[in-house]
Amino acid sequence: MTIPQVIFVVIAAVVLVSAVRVVASRNIVHAALWLILSLFGVAALFAVLEAGFMAVVQVVIYVGAIATLIIFAIMLTRREMREGGLQTHRWWPLPALLAMALFAGLAWLLGSLPGTGATPPALAGDDSVLLLGQALLSPEHYVLPFEVASVLLLAALVGAIVIAGDSRK
Amino acid sequence: MVNLGDFFYTLGMWLQGLLMRAGLSESAARGVFSALVAALLPLLALLTAVPLIWLERKWIARLQDRMGPNRVGPFGLFQVFADMIKIFTKEDITPLGADRIVFALAPVLAVAGVVGLWAVIPFAANAFGVDLNVGVLYLVAVGTLSTLAIMLAGWSANNKYALLGAYRTVAQMISYEVPLVLSLLVPVLLSGSLGLNGIVAAQREVWFVFSAPLAALLFLISSQAEVSRAPFDLLEAESEIVAGFNIEYSGMKFGFFFVGEFLHSFTMGLLGATLFLGGWTGPGVDAYPALGAVYLILKGTFVYFIFVWARATFPRIRIDQMLDFNWKLLTPLGLFLIPLLAVVNRGLSESSLWLRNAALLGANVFLAALVLIILGTRGRSARMRAASAAGPAASRR
Amino acid sequence: MVPLSWYLIVAAALFCLGLYGVLARRNSVAILMGIELMLNAVNLNLVAFWRYLEPARMSGQVFAVMVFAVAAAEAAVGLALIISLYRLRRTVVADEADLLRG
Q: Which of A160, B68, B125, B282 sits a CA distance of 20 to 30 A from B299?
């Protein structure tokens, strides 16, 4: 195993073990913390894939915003400081079986796809952030989805404030 | 031939040569050298905290017309060591029912969120941790670690008041991240690079504080609010009755939060110096690049002095005033500043350097004047409304 | 070097774990965490394909950026709904929000 492969295996192990702890943890705040570790692991994978901008944006958006929001929501919706009780349904073996079957099918399919064993082509020397910015904002590329995404975020912002706002006022 | 003018680069090359002669390949030598720098930078950051705390206490004392520490050692220089010994020897209590792992993790994350910032700051032309092409975004990303640490600290202490304090502190921090990021965008805009090395290199002729003083002001204010430093420290100040999220922490864990806060403030000073005051540029850096580190430290200490000055001068701001100030003044200001500067910068991109910077400065002054006029008219109308509400007799006086 | 299939398998595993989280957990916030895991798996897939098949075009990264935006919007609104539900019914267990059940 070459060094890049070892690094990949270590980071992937962190991601997957944390994800297992997210869905299997009895204490929901611990689940949120494992989620944060998993998100950091995915950011590290982005960095290994030489998408540095994606890695940093992943940390800013997922860990900095979404994970913080999740922790806030957990703490605002608890009846007591300690957590107990059943966290999964009684029939949890069924989704587990479904997930494992799905994973087995996907893994077999992905492993047998042609062209997925190759080494990556060399990256151009250009600054990928510049190229990404140009792709997001130039009219012949993706400026329309970009603007629509901005409107979506605005709608979500207004909607979240209205829904979660204090209705007693 | 040793070029002592480029001290850091020479040192690095010599170390790598040493490692290669010991039998490592070139990439392995570079890897070991990177690991060495990664271990050294946090050490450097934490060691900076020692003279920094003394400096701050002396400055605040003089601004408050008193002497400051002067008993322990000459001029009180060993006061910091005395404080360190005191904190080391305090009992480390974990409250009953607290989540032990998270309780121990939170202070570590708080310091990590500060020390991680030092990885991208360029100390000289060839002395930096790593030259990320997304350095500015990396700063924001590492800043979120501090927010997380405070949330975890407040929750894991099993104390309602710590949790409430943590909610309010995190609300303040994430609110002030918005104008902070907006002000960080201005040097990116003016230099065309998200990497800190590119931003410093673009300030060779004119510093960005002269091109966009309003953005520098925005950065100064929001970075101090981000760090919860006076005048924004209502939630964890010493004279407040309940000390906020770190109420259950004692001993070295509290020491971590304390050091982390001081260091964060100084790191924001270094960042302000890098982004707006030209970083390591200055007279003579082309011939002796190592001089850049001296310039950066001096500029960073100057910005830090402004922070200490603000701390000693202004009264504390209430939390609702703080959030009003953020969402109703700073964020709209940032949002108007960026398109204005973008248009001016682009429109005059063909002209000479001095014309473009003068136009940018003019745009800043125009926007600042506009804000002051709006605030003035609103203030006057509020005063007149209050006077007329108090009764016709009062308003006639 | 690392073959593309390794990245895809990790993404598939993450997706399946998220799916299990959505289907098997009772707490609504835990369900949302499962959804975030699935979105991360999708992003990982997109960026891996971008890097290995066509790094010259930025479409892969643009797609991933759109997924970021959608994930953020959905997390915000979802958590707002959960908080609002908690205020009304004092519970976040998804099974107990069954007023409309026939």
A: B68
B147 touches chain A (CB under 8 A): yes
Distance of alpha carbon C13 from alpha carbon C38, whole angstroms: 10
Q: What is the mean pLDDT of residues B114-140?
A: 89
H helices then E strands: how many in chain C?
Answer: 3, 0
Structure confidence by residue, pLDDT tens digits, A30-43: 899 999 999 999 99
What is the residue extent of each domain of chain B? 90-388
Is C101 contained in some domain?
no
Please state whether the peptide bond connecting residue B231 to the residue before it is cis, i.e. omega within 30 degrees of 0.
yes
Identify the closest residue of chain C to A134 by CA–CA distance. Answer: C58
Kindly list the distances between the CA atom of residue B267 and the CA atoms of A57, B111, B297, C48, in Å, as whole numbers in the listed order: 22, 12, 11, 35
Distance, CA of A37 to CA of A49 (rounded, Å): 19
Residue A169 pLDDT greater than 70, yes or no? no
Condensed to tens digits (0 to 9), the pLDDT of residues A104-123 reads 999 998 888 876 666 777 77
Q: Is residue C34 part of a domain?
A: yes
B99 contacts A81? CB cut-off 8 A = no
Alpha helices by DSSP H, B67-159? 79-88, 100-115, 135-156
Pull the structure tokens for residue B54.
């003394």
pLDDT 10s digits, B296-344: 999 999 999 999 999 889 888 888 889 999 999 999 999 999 999 999 9
Range of the domain at C89: 4-95
Q: Residue A50: closest CA among chain C residues belongs to which residue?
A: C51
Assigned architecture for domain A1-83: Up-down Bundle (1.20)
In C, which residues are within 8 Å of A49 by CB distance?
Answer: 7, 47-48, 51
- Whether residue C102 lies inside any domain: the answer is no
Query: Is C55 close to A120, i.e. CB distance below 8 A?
Result: yes
